Amino acid sequence: MLPIYLCLRMISSYLVQIKVSLFDTKYSGLWVPSKDCDVSQPACSEHNKNDNTMSLSYVRHGLPFLSIDTIRIGRFILKSQTFGEVFNFHPTMFWSQWDGVLRMGYPALSLFNETPTIVSKNEIHEKIVAPTFSFYLNRKHNLHSNGELLLGGTNPSRYEGELTYVDVTRQKYWQFKIDKIKTERNTFCSEGCQAILDTGFSMIAGPPQTIVALKLEIGFNEIVACREIPNLPHIKFVIGGKTFRLTGQDYVRKVTEDRCICMLQSIPYNHLLKNF
What fold does the segment set 6-151 form as a domain? Predict the structure, then answer.
């Protein structure tokens, strides 16, 4: 999994602090724990919760699990924002460092069937330099070097060279066109194909036929000795006319000192067709 990225939030006019994580670009919407969560679940008592009875700006929504209130995100104050309240938790939430999730997709992906989402709110667009947000995904799992979400631009200290911009081909996911995918012996997606950027997913996923062929050329299916990483072939993604080269270090994850796993994953065609 990618490192957890934390952001301090203030929900409602009474200013309760709620930490949110999983800035997921595949979905849309904000979810926070409710004060009415199931107290028999340990995670309920371990997390900060939203109490709409303490808020002067709270407005009742027609659905019981949704609320409308004022939200403060750093220096941004968002009025009349719809968000979801969580009443039941998965057991693993007990150990999580974050309380809720903020998803950064287009309004078409919102379960709330509401617009605008946080990403498209005018209160944010009026105060940022550019209508942009950017991620730095840190692969070093330590508390002293976190990932980064920047609203309104990019951080040049986090990358080298020039950024390549491509058009969003469908305003649902952050969907774009890949020109082709190349290895030493093969070319995939030779006539172009569609892809999405999903910050909540740490694998490189694609149709089974393509992923199987890539793994055959790499020389292993799931597990490889970490000492072999420098010898693994490169995978080249051509996007916007520019070639982005992935080395073995980029598509393999270290699990133990000498046990690494491949981060290429097959997704069934019916799932791909449903999403695209």
Answer: Cathepsin D, subunit A; domain 1 (2.40.70)
Q: Is 51 designated active site?
A: no
CB 193 within 8 A of CB 177: yes
Q: Cis ω on the peptide bond leading into residue 116 (within 30° of 0)? A: yes
Report whether 3 contacts 139 (CB < 8 A).
yes
CATH superfamily label, 168-273: Acid Proteases (2.40.70.10)
Q: From the candidates 51, 99, 179, 198, give the one annotated as an active-site residue.
A: 198
SS3 content of the chain, % helix, strand, coil (to 5): 20, 35, 45
Which residue is catalytic, options 24, 69, 99, 179?
Answer: 24
Task: Give pLDDT tens digits for 147-182.
Answer: 788 888 899 998 999 999 999 999 888 999 999 999
Q: What is the pTM of this model?
A: 0.80
Give catalytic status of residue 179 as yes or no. no
pLDDT in tens, 196-237: 998 888 899 999 999 999 999 888 888 889 999 999 999 999
